[in-house]
Every structure is written in C-alpha cells, then in structure tokens.
From TrEMBL:
UniProt KW Transferase keyword: no
Name of the protein in its database record: Alpha/beta fold hydrolase
Thioesterase TesA-like domain mapped to chain residues: 29-251
SMART domains noted in UniProt: PKS_TE (SM00824)
Naturally occurring in which organism (per UniProt): Streptomyces catenulae
InterPro entries according to UniProt: AB_hydrolase_fold, TEII, TesA-like, Thioesterase
Keyword terms of this UniProt record: Hydrolase
UniProt keyword Amino-acid biosynthesis present: no
Pfam families per record: Thioesterase
UniProt record similarity statement: Belongs to the thioesterase family.
GO terms of molecular function: hydrolase activity
C-alpha cells in the first residue's frame, strides 16, 4: 500500500528554511554543523531539486536568529528542534546531519520515533563519529585564536577570514557554544533508531576516519551503509552533486521505503 504524500504545507517559523520546493518531493530535513546555519545547505538543495525538497534547520544564534542565545547541549537543542519540526512531519521525510548536525539529527530522529510512532525513512549522518564514541580533544574551552585555528584546520573557513574583530565577535560565541554542546554530549546507553542509516565521510577527514564510521552500525536496527567521498571534514562543499545523487537514489530509487 503506498504511503501518503509528503506534507505540502510550507513550514513556517524561525526553525525551518525551505529550499528547492517541489510538488510531491520528499522533504530532507538538514541539520547544520557547529557554527553553521541553514544557508550552508543551499548548494546541496540546488542539486537535490526537484527530486528532494530541502528543509534546513536554523539553530538559534545565527543569521536572522543572531539575537537568540545558542544552545550549549545537544539534547536540549534536539528537544527544541523536535518540538518545532513535529507539526510539519506528517508524511514521509528523511534527515541529514553534518558533523554536530549528525548528532542532533540522530537525537531528533529518536524523539520522532518515540513520541510520534514514526521517524524518518532514512537518516544520513555525515562527518561525525558515532554517538557512543567520546569526543576527542577540547576545542570549545580554548581562547579565540585557538578556536579560529581549529576551524581553519578543519577547512571551515578561509585562513585569515576571521582576522576582523567584528566578525570574530559575531561568529565565535556561536561556534564556542556549539563546540561545548558537542564536547558535553553523552549518548544514552543502547540508543538506536529504527530507520535505515547511511553514514558519509571524507577520506581525509581529521574528525572521523573511514574505519571509525562502522561504530555507527549498532545505532540502528535497520539497514546500514557507508559512503566515502574524496575530501576532508567539509567534503560536502565540493561534492554536493555526488552526495545529492546518493540521497536521491536512496529516497526515490527502487529500494526506497516511501
């Protein structure tokens, strides 16, 4: 029996930005990386249109929400995001999270399954070690220069781009809050989702190695697969077309669950 069509009422409110809208397309709810905003998913959204519709989550503290205090706990952020998303998730949908966003997406998916009885048809977790693997290092508590150096090391900004004091004052508080959230995150024992799980990573990512991606496997009771792309932590910037092709195939191909 076919599933009902994906929700066609455009999401409203401060939490969701709708990109690449298309009638009948499956919504892919995207969760940004530490320091990232909904706008970071625009390149991917262009590649997904018209096959998949992109809903990008806008965390507090960035872009038009810059006056709001950013969260410093992944679980609290997931609680708030779930509350905002829940009214709109009335048909088939999928989740995609990059880096910190992978942890947030995982936690929101768990809440969807527990509270509504149905979760995403697939979870895409990108550039992040498994929830049960402790965070390596401690960047969130460093001084500004060290925090900028860490961001540059991961390829999250062009070297020298954050030399401007005003720009630092705008970017670093949000980035530090996000890093604190990641560093303090503790996964509940035995936490899983029931949907298929696709893990993506770059082959030169200093945050998660290809070998470490398999640690995600126990976190789903559904199908599991790994996709490796050329690049580092922000491989997605250069590989949006390839990533989009994989997402489209997973969500609209002959083996999809919609």
């Amino acid at each position: 029996m076919p599933h009902p069509p994906s929700p066609r009422t455009a999401p409203t409110g401060p939490w969701i930005r709708r990109f690449g809208a298309a009638d009948g397309a499956v919504p892919l709810v995207c969760f940004p990386h530490a320091g990232g905003s909904a706008g970071s998913y625009l390149p991917l959204a262009k590649q997904l249109t018209p096959h998949v519709e992109t809903w990008a989550v806008q965390y507090p503290g960035r872009q038009e929400r810059y006056r709001e205090t950013p969260f410093t706990e992944v679980t609290a952020l997931a609680d708030a995001a779930f509350t905002a998303l829940r009214p709109h998730l009335t048909g088939p949908y999928a989740f995609f999270g990059h880096s910190m966003g992978a942890l947030v997406a995982f936690e929101v998916a768990r809440r969807c399954e527990a509270e509504t009885g149905h979760g995403p048809v697939r979870l895409f977790a990108s550039a992040r070690r498994a929830p049960s693997v402790p965070h390596r290092g401690a960047t969130g508590w460093r001084d500004d220069d060290a925090l900028v150096a860490e961001l540059e090391r991961l390829g999250g900004t062009i070297p020298g781009a954050l030399d401007d004091p005003d720009l630092r004052a705008m970017v670093l508080p949000v980035l530090r809050a996000d890093y604190r959230a990641v560093e303090g995150y503790v996964c509940a024992a035995g936490a899983t989702v029931g949907c298929p799980l696709t893990v993506l990573c770059g082959d030169r990512d200093p945050v998660v190695t290809v070998a470490e991606t398999d640690a995600w496997r126990p976190h789903t009771t559904g199908a599991f697969d790994v996709t490796v792309h050329p690049g580092g932590h922000f491989y997605l910037d250069a590989r949006a077309a390839e990533v989009a092709a994989g997402i489209i195939g997973a969500l609209t191909g002959p083996t999809q669950r919609l």
